[in-house]
């Protein structure tokens, strides 16, 4: 199958899914989450780069490991080109939830553009996973790829899904782009929002021309970075422009996974978040309505207004912790009782 044929096959599958799968959710919003902490870029100090104060620090991947939260924020120093790098900082979980962080917060850049496929706008929006003593980061690489290679204009670029493996010392052991298809050149998809599940299963949100963004599942070979067996899972509703996965997936005691999703609400263009419960292969078990939405000045006004963008999800005791970007300029930490969130997930 050629790349064009593969893309058309997936687009047709998306169209059929949209025709039959909408109508499971309402636009009802019930914000359950307590605001624990905001971290503005003025409170960040970058330790391994000459410019220590980013203009924006937001959309952080998050991993809880041995009582410490590892944060991987997206950093931007120039609005002219909007080029991004990904940093790292670590804070004891109790201190993070109580707002007792160092000020300024020390951050080191761990992932930055080095390849052609990152060379225009860099490395964006990490979704972090523990991997032995180190980490796996899904991220969006924005550079020259496919047709974008045919021009030297920096205004022409492609966003594609990439994966970086970091060692215990946070050095990059390897990184590369994910391709769809088992053989040949493979299809690079403009995509974000990827997270791992059981046994090579993953969630992702590819974009296709002529089809609204929706949530998919598939399988990933970590050795070859090939994605196969793509299937749509969650469609946007008529009150949304699109949907995407918001966070990494959290494994629950019964073996199912909890993951946040976002919809861009047509009423005000806000990013609002609900929660899905999935089997280990990504099959949908249940869905909630919106349980988190922008509130007040801090969350409503930013480089992108009315935007909460989720990246990290973990459990601390019986408290669900959602870590994300605020207005495309700052970091936010939000919590809700796990029991309350699960009670609002309706079987599908």
From TrEMBL:
It comes from the Bacteria. InterPro entries: Glyco_hydro_beta-prop_sf, Mannoside_phosphorylase. Keywords: Glycosyltransferase, Transferase. Gene3D superfamilies: Glycosyl hydrolase domain, family 43. Belongs to the glycosyl hydrolase 130 family. This is Glycosidase. It comes from Thermus aquaticus (strain ATCC BAA-2747 / Y51MC23).
């Amino acid at each position: 199958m050629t790349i064009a044929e593969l893309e058309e096959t997936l687009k047709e599958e998306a169209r059929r899914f949209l025709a039959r799968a909408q109508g499971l959710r309402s636009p009802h919003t019930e914000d359950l989450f307590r605001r624990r902490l905001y971290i503005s870029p003025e409170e960040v100090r970058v330790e391994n780069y000459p410019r220590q104060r980013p203009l924006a620090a937001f959309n952080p991947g998050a991993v809880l490991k041995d009582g410490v939260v590892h944060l991987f924020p997206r950093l931007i120093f120039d609005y002219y080109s909007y080029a991004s790098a990904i940093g790292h900082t670590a804070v004891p979980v109790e201190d993070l939830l109580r707002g007792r962080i160092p000020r300024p917060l020390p951050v080191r850049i761990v992932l930055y553009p080095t390849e052609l496929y990152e060379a225009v706008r860099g490395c964006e929006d990490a979704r972090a996973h523990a991997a032995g003593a180190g980490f796996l980061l899904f991220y969006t690489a924005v550079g020259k790829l496919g047709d974008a290679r045919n021009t030297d204009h920096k205004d022409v670029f492609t966003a594609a899904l990439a994966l970086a493996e970091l060692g215990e010392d946070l050095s990059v052991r390897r990184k590369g782009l994910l391709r769809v298809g088992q053989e040949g050149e493979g299809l690079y998809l403009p995509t974000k929002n990827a997270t791992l599940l059981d046994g090579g299963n993953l969630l992702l949100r590819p974009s296709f021309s002529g089809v609204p963004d929706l949530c998919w599942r598939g399988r990933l070979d970590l050795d070859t970075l090939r994605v196969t067996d793509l299937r749509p899972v969650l469609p946007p509703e008529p009150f949304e422009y699109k949907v995407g996965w918001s966070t990494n997936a959290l494994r629950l005691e019964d073996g199912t996974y909890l993951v946040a999703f976002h919809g861009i609400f047509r009423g005000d263009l806000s990013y609002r978040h609900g929660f899905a419960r999935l089997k280990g292969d990504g099959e949908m078990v249940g869905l909630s309505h919106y349980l988190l939405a922008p509130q007040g000045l801090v969350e409503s006004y930013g480089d992108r207004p009315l935007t909460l963008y989720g990246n990290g999800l973990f459990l601390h005791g019986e408290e669900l912790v959602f870590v994300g970007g605020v207005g495309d300029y700052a970091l936010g930490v939000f919590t809700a009782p796990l029991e309350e969130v699960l009670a609002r997930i309706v079987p599908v």
